Amino acid sequence: MTQPAPRSLLYCSALHPEQYAKSALTDVMVIDLEDGVPHGQKVGARACVEQFYRSQVSQRTALRINPLRDNEGLLDLLLVQSLEQRPEFIIMAMTEAAAEIDVVRANLMRDGESPKILVTVETPACLKDIYAMASGADGLIFGSADYAASLGVQIGGWANILHARVSIIAAASVAGIPAFDTAYFNLEDDVGLMKECQDTRELGFSGKTSIHPRQIPIINEAFTPSQAEYEHALAVVQAADNSGEKITRLKNLMVGPPFVKQARKLIQRARDLGL
Question: How far apart are CA 6 and CA 88, in angstroms?
Fold first, then answer.
């Protein structure tokens, strides 16, 4: 990605363009044509999107389109094709085959480029093809509500969907793309949100989606390396450099190549975010 991988992606119904202005709070504003729009209002929602992109859009935006297996998804593609100014990201919903990514990218290609494509992992069927999907995508998003519902387990749990999170991170890592965790649905539980952000960051997620702007400051804080983390990473790299990149000791920590690799990644992430 030419810009840093986002920490926060805030969903907003395409029916409410007055709320798009809240994009200043989040790294990426996601304009939602899928679940955020009732079936009978899709035409009006697309009209709102078309009008929005006729104006000068300076913020980073994403457009979540309907599944390609639904005619609404095809109409969404036609809309994006018609836009002179387009979103930075297209978010695909209910994706179950890598070929669907190829269809979207081919149809949105213009002058050799298309919007970056983020694939939402929402069903067990998607996991079957997850490595192929990751290789064709620019990022993965975990959609835990639909995933848990398809399993018949509690939505918002941890252990019952941990296998999906780990699978997403593994596939994204192999493909060298970022992964973004699911939204946290308890809007009043700031402590729980922070803990889930910290836990998913530890798994390897780059950021998290959100359904309410009040969650964004917590998400951005959790997915931004702290000053202490940054300074420790610098010390790890310095210790390795001083030892000629041999295994060495930094206080009570043995520093070897994996520690240096992780430290360099954290330093790069911090610098990408302007720290």
Answer: 12
